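#structure-requests
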Amino acid sequence: MYPRNVIVVGAGPVGCIAALLLADRGIPVTVLERHPLPHPLPRAVHLDDEVTRILQRIGVGDAFLAGSRPACGLRLLDARHRVMAEFRRQPEVPDSGFPGANMFHQPELEALLFHRVDRHPLIDLRRGVEVRALDGVHDPLSGPPVHVHTRAVAGEAAQTFTGGLVLGCDGANSTVRQLLGVHVQDLGFTERWLVVDVRAAAPLNSWAGVEQVCDPARAATFMQVTGDRYRWEFQLRDGEDETDLIAQLGSLLQPWSGRPDLAGLEVTRKAVYTFRAGLATHFQIGRAFLLGDAAHLTPPFIGQGLAAGLRDADNVAWKIAYVLTGRATPDLLATYQTERRPHAAAMIRKAKLFGWAMTGGQNAAAVRRFLLGVAVRSARVRDAVASTATPRLRGGALRQTSALSRPPRALRVGALIPNPPLCLISGEQVRLDDLLDGAPAMVTARRPEPRLVDVCRRRDITLVRVTDGTDAEPNGGWVDVRLASGRTTGLHALVDDPSLTVLVRPDRYIAAVGTRSQPPHLTWTTTDRRS
């Protein structure tokens, strides 16, 4: 019915993960990348537990975790590097199933992604190809394919690629965004920072989390990344020449290295970045979508820049796959912008607020002293600062059930379903994400009614019952699981109220919560799969 393939522009982590999520659902993908080789230097260094679930789903989660390092929180230092406050994360793995904050070396993550991309039979990666023009993006999905006109970066050879949809994952200076005529709204944040990456011959004096120097004269950030890799970020004053700052790099690093020179330190990168806050006016124009930095720019203070792009990819990929395979109508695609743009805007606002509070001048310092006083007295505030949880989705492919005005907090519509360890009838232990394997699900703690079993069978929805194991029915039309003992999880809310049923989308967001008398309705149109 529709052209089945998708063209992804940009082979960074966002583009590769979008391609893998689509290809794993049977959608052929062509990835166009202007650079002939992968970028060799690190950029992003942090991913949270929520997006680690995405990496697990595309088959690189275990390898990513093996090469990453959990970070234990945030420490605020004064100008003399004395600790003003410490916001620790609990050492226990949260209900998402992965460490709350993961430090990593981006080239190593990209190597994992390229290994999968290069071997996937439905992905065709073309390097050294520059997009020049787009045709057909405004036509309906049922119309002729979109034409993406390119030329070789190393020559003048031209080639045109065709596909049903185009994903612009080509960064802050996105060519796709420019060709679509989409503007970026300036959200009022521009700062220049010197970023320094180092490999140290001997371990440095560092904390296991992130250190933020709250010095109005020169704010700075320091963190161990992984192994012998470390990163510093130093704020530049207005009009300051970065060459002067680079010339005194040894003394800048001395509080951590213990010496005024760079002996024993290999500087692998030093670059000045302008941190900005920006939001594209549209995330979708017709059959073209913007993802990652092409759609939003987030200051780095909460480590959510790359994570936001991976959320984009996860949100749009299953919707595209459902539409292109006829399991949903094209109007589902419009919910990408409805869901992701407000969420990205909320994270940008949070990053701006944290950045101002931690690195601002004298006005921010007064606010900082007040907030630190509150934090010292309130465990709730300390936990909130250390938390990596992001806001719930609002609107879009979600549905509130009128019969249930206020579901339990862990099962709110628009939140990610918990991902606890579960015990199958066989005794095997798996996490919920692995059990569902990218499929939509209904989850309840009661014996499912025949009509619920029938709906799930006809709509290719995995039906899961949380049980104590005494009344398991291997052939009942659902999967029986037990919650692992000794752990508290949000799924206990189902056990506490067996009348509840939760509808989970393929991207693991809760789409609807219903009751026995009013089951959750699908938030997307699907085709019955009658046996």
